[in-house]
Design goal:
Length: about 325
């Protein structure tokens, strides 16, 4: 870039594939700051002239297991200690912002768009939040894998209700996407036994995931008067799993950077202690509609179990 700038040649484009929202914006900020350490003017030039288009990739990649390593060795004779397992379905959305032309990326299946944000929100609020909808309630009900929960008609209807009545109404228009078809495909993707994605993986670090994936949906629907009962049920189930056992009394491990605090609040005699953590939940505990729904659902999950609670909410 230094040589290109000095010679008046257009810069190249930096395409970030990090699996985080606004990845291009973050890459620009970080790289421009790094360049400014060498030369403040270079940093400003990078910030103003080098394109860092945002991108979004949607593909489920569960944690690699011993079965995956064994299958690779048996079928292909390849010994790999960490092969990457993924589903056949894939989507790569990329902002069409390049410095000096670009390859025909659309020929390789890339969806070129003006703004990636609607696609990010679709993934976060449908796929990622949908995983949370299944994981906490499903683990309480005794399931181990995502496909097992989604193959159960009751839990599948519950997830479909969340997608249609809670997640979708909070989305802006998503150009080029048939949301009904996307959601139908999502249910089938979750139900695929070939993926064998564990609920433990989905539940891990929920204190990082739920505030990104589910709470924006809940807040938007509280503000608009929309449906919230399934989102609330996920929070109640999260609190219940943090108590350390499923509905059959089998122990559950809480893998979370905030595990101690979550467990302490979940075990409190104050029914609202878990959601009163303002670092995680902000001012939700001040919302009367949310509090009433949460109290009722938490009581149901604790006394009747996850399955009966889901049955009452579909």
């Amino acid at each position: 870039l230094v040589r290109r700038r000095s010679r008046g040649i257009p810069p190249f484009t930096v395409v970030s594939c990090d699996n985080i929202p606004h990845n291009g914006d973050l890459a620009r900020s970080s790289y421009a700051a790094f360049a400014a350490l060498r030369d403040p003017e270079l940093g400003e030039w990078v910030r103003a002239n080098v394109p860092f288009p945002n991108s979004m990739v949607d593909r489920i990649t569960p944690v690699t297991g011993d079965e995956d390593r064994a299958q690779l060795a048996d079928r292909f004779g390849v010994e790999d200690r960490w092969p990457v397992v993924c589903e056949p379905w894939t989507q790569w959305v990329l902002e069409d912002s390049f410095a000096d032309g670009r390859p025909p990326l659309e020929d390789a299946g890339v969806q070129l768009v003006d703004d990636v944000v609607p696609y990010e929100l679709m993934k976060l609020r449908l796929l990622n939040a949908g995983h949370q909808v299944l994981a906490h309630l499903g683990q309480l009900a005794g399931f181990e894998h995502v496909h097992q929960v989604c193959a159960d008609p009751l839990f599948r209807r519950f997830l479909a209700g969340y997608l249609d009545e809670e997640g979708t109404p909070t989305l802006p228009p998503v150009p080029g996407i048939d949301l009904a078809a996307y959601k139908a495909e999502l249910l089938d993707r979750f139900a695929s036994p070939a993926i064998r994605d564990t609920l433990d993986r989905i539940r891990a670090e929920a204190s990082d995931r739920i505030p990104q994936f589910l709470l924006p949906v809940l807040r938007a629907n509280l503000a608009s008067g929309g449906e919230i009962r399934r989102s609330v049920a996920v929070l109640a189930a999260w609190a219940r799993t943090a108590e350390g056992a499923d509905d059959a009394g089998q122990p559950l491990t809480l893998t979370d950077a905030r595990a101690d605090a979550l467990t302490s609040r979940a075990s409190s005699t104050d029914a609202l202690a878990f959601v009163a953590d303002r670092e995680l939940f902000g001012d939700l505990v001040d919302d009367e509609r949310f509090v009433a729904a949460y109290r009722e659902t938490l009581t149901s999950v604790r006394t009747r179990g996850a399955r009966a609670t889901v049955e009452s909410l579909v």
